[in-house]
Design a protein that fits this description.
single chain; 2 helices
Length: 47
């Protein structure tokens, strides 16, 4: 279950701003994809 990291009113405002932002450019999408790959959690280790 997810927890709010911010006040629910702030979360609503963030969601509204994100909806207005539109799609990223090709360069922005590529950068975001690269950053998300860099920050993936490590797979669990075998015991």
């Amino acid at each position: 279950m997810a927890r709010y990291l911010t006040d629910p009113a702030t979360e609503t405002e963030i969601q509204a701003l994100a909806a207005e932002a539109g799609l990223p450019t090709v360069d922005q999408a590529a950068t975001l994809a690269r950053l998300l790959r860099l920050h993936q959690p490590a797979p669990p280790r075998a015991a």
